[in-house]
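cron nightly-structures :: item 1 of 1
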Amino acid sequence: MCELLVVCASEPVRLTFSLHTLAARGALPASSRDGWGVAFYEGLDVALFREPGAAGDSPLVRFLETDGPRTRMAISHIRHATQGAVQLSNTQPFARTLGGRTHVFAHNGHLAGIEQRGSLALGRHRPIGQTDSEHAFCALLERLEALWESPTVPTVQARCAVLAGFAADLRALGPANFVYCDADAVFVHGDKRIQSSGRIEPPGLWLSQRHCPPIGLPPETGGGVAISGSGRAVAWVASVPLTPEDWRPLAEGEMVVLRDGEIAGGSEPCPR
């Protein structure tokens, strides 16, 4: 299956070890070699880098590890193609503008029959590629559009309500691990994935947090994030634990909202 990585921090940080670890999963002979991408938020916009090839073989990945932009929110995805050709338009994360800001989405799983599900029908927002994941993103934007007609940022509660219903519709079709960001907060939904046993079961995503001491830490002890300075909180989510630090598995159907490196308002299973 695909691999997801999310970083949310209270101050700008730089991805290092985690991106390298995720890239290693895309190197031959690993199965996830059909494309990779990473979105770095800067204010309301993102710097988006994608390639329809193995991340482990990419000079661009190695460049981003050492010279990538510092960011407070980043979303990375390594693709194992299940629908759609191996090409740039089918490579995640996907990004669209809505309400004067860039929204980013990445998904892990296969959503069989999404094109026929009425509650996930498309309207103004249309996919560029052929993947079920991009269809899901466009369907989500249809639901969110009314919230972003106001010049003010919708409440987290209002956005969560929309995302909970969306997540329930996805879970009815297949594994629905996804990450969505609107430049204000990161919404992470855990479901299930193929485990080492070969069974499809929870957890689909893992969460870890760190509150950094005043003295800066070397990148390898920060869970893959270059940390320096004081008063910093960092949260990261990945398909599998990436470091020896404590990682918490997300329960099936659990939604977590991240903002400034913290869990905003706690986390709870989505309604079924």
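cron nightly-structures :: done
The domain at 3-269 is CATH 3.60.20.10 (Glutamine Phosphoribosylpyrophosphate, subunit 1, domain 1).
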